[in-house]
């Protein structure tokens, strides 16, 4: 599913499909718009180039699936590049846990799009402040997001659980009335990999 505003802007939406899309958006399926959910589009040209160069140096082939050894090799390379040291055993376990969360169906590989999404989030977290990312939302969207997250029960560590994250995402999409809005991609920061 896509936002009707995005598809209209891209010239792909037939008028008769609008109501069907809106109806589906408010079901358990919800909606997901590739254009809006694609956090890669939030990266600058330089950030994307740097990320792709790192992939190239690690011999990671774009658009192909990755197995756990390739992800480990990549993370070792990045660790050496950034911190001039190998990953610790504990860090390797974390990488394997991340791999498992990106491979919930236990296929033994992760899809390129999932890997790129996760690495793009890492770049954004590293180089962007939370405020700069929040400023990408409209004032109306910031108010909605604030009210949704303030309504969640926070645990003693002030961490949002996966269940609370899913609840916030569902609330976001159920309350989203403006079909022209294309800033919901920032809700991707509250993914199972990013929330407690």
List the helices and strands in order.
HHHHHHHHHH
Rg over C-alpha atoms, rounded to the nearest angstrom: 18 Å
Structure class:
mainly alpha
Beta-sheet strand percentage? under 5%
Counting copies of identical and different chains, the oligomeric state is single chain
- End-to-end Cα distance: 27 Å
Give the CA-based shape.
globular
Main pleated-sheet profile: none
Count of the domains: 2
What average pLDDT do the residues reach?
Answer: 75
Report the count of strand segments: 0
Uncertain runs: 176-196
Q: How many helices in DSSP terms?
A: 10
Please estimate the helix content.
55-70%
Summarize the helices and strands and which ones pair or pack.
Layout: H1 4-10, H2 18-25, H3 34-37, H4 45-57, H5 68-83, H6 89-102, H7 112-127, H8 130-134, H9 139-150, H10 162-175
């Amino acid at each position: 599913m896509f936002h009707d505003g995005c598809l209209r802007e891209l010239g792909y939406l037939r008028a008769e499909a609008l109501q069907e899309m809106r109806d589906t958006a408010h079901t358990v399926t919800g909606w997901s718009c590739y254009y809006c959910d694609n956090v890669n589009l939030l990266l600058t040209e330089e950030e994307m180039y740097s990320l792709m160069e790192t992939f190239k140096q690690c011999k990671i082939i774009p658009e192909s699936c990755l197995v756990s050894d390739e992800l480990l090799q990549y993370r070792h390379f990045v660790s050496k590049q950034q911190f001039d040291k190998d990953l610790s055993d504990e860090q390797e376990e974390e990488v394997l846990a991340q791999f498992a969360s990106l491979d919930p169906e236990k296929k033994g590989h992760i899809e390129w799009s999932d890997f790129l999404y996760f690495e793009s989030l890492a770049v954004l977290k590293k180089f962007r402040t939370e405020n700069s990312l929040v400023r990408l939302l409209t004032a109306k969207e910031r108010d909605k997001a604030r009210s949704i997250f303030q309504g969640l029960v926070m645990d003693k560590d002030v961490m949002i659980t996966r269940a609370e994250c899913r609840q916030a995402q569902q609330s976001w999409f159920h309350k989203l009335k403006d079909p022209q809005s294309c800033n919901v991609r920032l809700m991707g920061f509250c993914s199972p990999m990013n929330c407690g």
